[in-house]
Design goal:
about 50% strand, about 10% helix, eight-stranded mixed β-sheet, mainly beta, 3 helices
């Protein structure tokens, strides 16, 4: 009887010792040190988030071989951006001698990266306020009008809406209605050529193309067979187009954006970025100046009729292009209204 009672007291003592030890640990160095990083994920494009998209935000330790995930929040959003997230982790996991960052991306249901954080946010940048992570299209690759201009372009239409596609190996630059451009990577397809970023789809077979854009489907055909060069330029967002002879040349102006000059019957091709035009006092017209690999490119457009010496066509505007020590003279017209 005494032995049983002694054993009971002994077990009770051990239990009390365990409880006291646990309390001591919880109140000392062994205590959890919970911390939360919260915020939102968004992007600037006016594009609806595709159904079944996945938002992935993670706190990672940056290492020479990549990164190690400390905390992660995987969200299957039921709303459009901004999407809230929360990263919960034990502060004791962080070592002051190591580097940490917050990464974020939005994937399609097929795990294609649609938007990603161009530069991961370091812990030093977090501060005490909620994070607002602004993502960019694709894997940090932003659409480039200049890159597209150097490629063959094709216009597709359903009779009302027009799309212009510039093809490059493994991708297509697609100009959407409203002049927005997206870059779509090529994916495997049973027939034809298919390109998609998980939201916008461009699938062409010969002279026809299926396009899915902003939740709508378009069955289009190539407009190149019946559009004049002037109509093609307008469909591609060109505001002014001019040309001249001996040797033949063409200039296309996208107001506030770029100028493309093709000279000497196609042997010379120059793209320059020109944000705004200057007033040209001598003619009362507009003067555009930009830099290129061959030097300064200067284009002047003013209202004065010009007759093309080859076709006899009369253009309402005169235009000169000065580049590489030469000046080209010709005529042209405005295709899209500008201020």
């Amino acid at each position: 009887m005494f032995n049983k009672r002694a054993q009971s007291f002994c077990l009770l003592g051990i239990l009390l010792l365990v409880l006291v030890s646990a309390y001591t640990l919880a109140d000392g160095k062994g205590a959890l040190n919970p911390h939360t990083i919260a915020g939102t994920v968004a992007y600037r494009e006016r594009i609806a988030l595709a159904p079944e998209s996945i938002v992935n935000v993670a706190l990672v330790e940056v290492t020479a071989g990549g990164h190690v995930v400390i905390a992660e929040d995987v969200v299957r959003p039921q709303r459009q951006v901004p999407i809230p997230f929360s990263l919960e982790f034990d502060q004791r996991l962080l070592d002051e001698a190591r580097d940490y960052a917050v990464k974020a991306e939005i994937l399609s249901k097929d795990k294609v990266v649609m938007w990603s954080l161009l530069t991961p946010v370091s812990l030093e940048e977090l501060g005490s306020e909620d994070l607002e992570l602004m993502l960019v299209k694709g894997m940090g690759e932003e659409p480039s009008v200049e890159a597209a201009l150097a490629l063959p372009g094709h216009t597709f239409t359903d009779g009302e809406v027009e799309f212009t596609a510039y093809f490059e190996e493994g991708k297509v630059y697609l100009i959407l209605p409203g002049s927005e451009m997206v870059i779509l990577p090529q994916v495997r397809a049973a027939s034809g050529a298919k390109y998609t970023d998980g939201i916008t789809v461009f699938w062409n077979k010969g002279n026809q193309a299926f396009i899915e854009f902003q939740g709508k489907n378009f069955q289009t055909h190539s407009a190149d067979t019946h559009l004049s060069p002037w109509e093609k330029a307008k469909a591609a967002g060109v505001d002014f187009r001019g040309l001249g002879q001996e040797p033949g040349w063409v200039v296309e102006i996208r107001e506030g954006k770029t100028i493309t000059f093709i000279g000497d019957y196609g042997d010379v091709k120059i793209n320059v970025y020109v944000p705004e035009a200057d007033f040209e006092p001598q003619t009362g017209g507009k003067r555009y100046t930009g830099a290129s690999g061959v030097g300064t490119v200067e284009v002047t457009v003013w209202e004065e009729p010009h007759t093309d010496i080859m076709s006899g066509q009369v253009f309402p505007f005169s235009v000169t292009v000065a580049v590489g020590g030469r000046t080209y003279y010709g005529g042209g017209r405005w295709l899209n209204s500008v201020d």
